[in-house]
Amino acid sequence: MVHEQDRLGITASFEWKPRRGTRISVDMLYADLDATREEHYLEGFSFSRNATSGGKPQTSVVQAQYDALGRLRYGVFNGVDIRSESRYDEMSTKFTQPTLNLSHQISEDWRVSAAIGRAKSTFDNPIQTTVTLDAPNVNGYTLDFRQNDRLPLISYPFDVTRAGVLGIYGVPAGATAAANALPSEIRIRPQGTSNVNDVLSADVAWRASDAWTVKGGINLKKYKFRTWESRRANTAETIYGLPAGTSLNGLTGLVTGFGPDQDLPAGTATSWVKPDIGAITALYDAYCNCLKTGPAGGPGDFTLTSIENTSARGNNRAIEEEDRGVFLQGDFDSELWGIPVRGNVGGRYVKTKLTAQGYVATGGGTLVTATNEYKDFLPAVNVTASVTKDFLVRLAAAKVMSRPALGNLNPGGTISTVGALGISSGNPTLEPFRAKTFDASFEYYFPNKAFLGLGLFQKNIASYIQGVRQSMPYNQTGLPLSLLPANFNGTEMFDVSSFLNTPGGKLRGFELNYQQPFTFLPSWGRNFGLIANYTKVASKIDYIISANTANSGTVRDELVNLSPKSWNTTFYYDDNRFSARLTGAYRSAYLQVVPAQNNNDVQGKNETFNVDLSLSYKWNDNLEFTFEGVNLTNEATDQFVGRARNSVMVYNVTGREYLLGARYKF
């Protein structure tokens, strides 16, 4: 993959004090990001598909070896479809955020403040094009895990660096599909997203006594989200064969130098022929947004459609969220039995109103508007006791909530009939994550800024949002067959996904923190120091087994995306002019999907250890140079399926990243 970015960021701040005790400020932020991305794949794609979507019931197993856990160690196969796939994106994002702040000291005991602002971001992806070269019905395709269970040796029985076997396998003239294999494709999927977030807050503080300050205020937020996508009217996104007399010369290129830092097995293909996206789209006039040849909706139709397109429809949606809240809080600073005690106690009342729009399948795309409204009272208390001048005890309890992700709220849905077959839909009636949290920490401050702390925490999750996925035949989803391409019959297996609220569960754990400047060393070492922390968490969450089967029951497992064990250690140097930080970060293996698909118990990610380096040098008060080295250990993303089997699902190495920068302040 080649990903190039051009970034521009501008910040500005203006402050005015028209009178004593009054402050007015305007903060502005502008960011512009332009990017292009190229991705190239070489794949035996028919293994992951059923018969009517490019799978190969004709595939025969010539040889196969398995280990004691049932994992494939070695296999030779005939009748496999091989594909070289390339994708090209042009993207731009613009972000603006002006904020007006006002504060005024009315008297010695009264103070008011207010803020109003808008954050707006616009993402545009006008070019997202994928083109494929295909080699159907290949004999002698080999997968060999015997040397490495994460990185198999994949062998092809032909020279993948030369066009010929891999080429344009198009739909024959006068037909709508190819026999016994999936035709080559040109996918055109322009899309975009806009987000607008308007906020207004105002609060007042009253110093009631030397020990108490009372605060209260309002918070208003209005958030708007809209996204769109278009795709070809030919939902299969296939193409006809090359025009008569046209050769592959000039229509292909070569991927070279794949996987230099991945320790690939000897014999792995590191170069292969790729489609030239510019040349092939020009040959087919694929960006014409028109019917070039053949029937409407056929391989020669490059018309772009949106809400009437079953594949693109679900990505055309909008959400508007209004949040209104008020709070009342008391801050205290006093003594209890001779021990200094400070903290706050209060509550926030929040009302959330949601309006979601999306398209459903009926009538070629019918707009549906769904609303949801919920209210929460969120009390909280925080207390800090200075047992001695060096030893603090902190206690906290709160009721908290977090709103659902916007992508989970779509009242419509998407049907994907190209690539991995899937049906995804949102749930606009989702309730937020809700929990009661309890925290305690014990902190000891040594001389010279050293620190040792122990934190204990528990979260009682009362409402959890689960993404549910399962495989089922299309004809069991309740959707009409008319939404499928002509070559589908309804028995195809689709991955069906949606979102539901579940009862949640409990999470508890502890965190150790230690900070030690090396001020005890001679002058050469006094600017060095160490920061370290360790966290251990135990969690049990109830997950619904099936969203489409009544009374399917639940399964109890760990909270997804949370490592049971993690630690970070930073060794640093800082003399106020030059600073350096070397950080090691460890995460134990964690779960990502419960339950997993295809009768697997879980999907997850194996443990990682990353090392990063950060350097900075202040040339003067205005100019600073920076250097960052990210992922110096070249850690891989290693995702697995099956807790016991730990079968590799995704193994990806992004490589080391080096960033050189400069910052100027004026």
Give an overview in words.
With 666 residues, this protein is an all-beta fold. The protein is 1% helix and 59% strand. It is built from 1 helix and 36 strands. It has one helix at 277-284, and strands at residues 2-16, 22-43, 60-66, 72-78, 80-105, 110-138, 141-144, 153-155, 186-188, 191-207, 212-229, 231-232, 252-255, 272-275, 304-305, 317-336, 339-360, 366-386, 391-402, 413-416, 422-425, 433-445, 451-473, 493-502, 504-517, 528-544, 554-557, 565-574, 578-587, 590-593, 603-605, 608-618, 623-630, 636-641, 647-653, 657-664. It has a 24-stranded mixed β-sheet that branches. The chain has a 4-stranded antiparallel β-sheet with strand order 3-4-7-8, with no helix packed on it. Strands 30-31-34-35 form a 4-stranded antiparallel β-sheet, with no helix packed on it. A hairpin with a 4-residue loop joins strand 32 (608-618) and strand 33 (623-630). The longest helix has 8 residues, at 277-284. The protein is globular, with a radius of gyration of 29 Å.
Short description:
By secondary structure, the protein is mainly beta. Helix content is 1%, strand content 59%.
Task: Provide the descriptors you would attach to this structure in a database record.
666 residues; mainly beta; 24-stranded mixed beta sheet; four-stranded antiparallel beta sheet; 1 helix; 36 strands; 59% strand; globular
Task: Report how far the terminal alpha carbons are from each other.
Answer: 38 Å
Radius of gyration: 29 Å
Query: Which residues sit in consecutive blocks of at least 5 with pLDDT less than 50?
Result: none
Largest sheet: 24 strands, mixed
Structural class: mainly beta
Count of individual beta strands: 36
Strand content: over 45%
User: How many individual helices?
Assistant: 1
C-alpha geometry: globular
Mean pLDDT: 90
Helix content: under 10%
List the quaternary state of the chains.
single chain
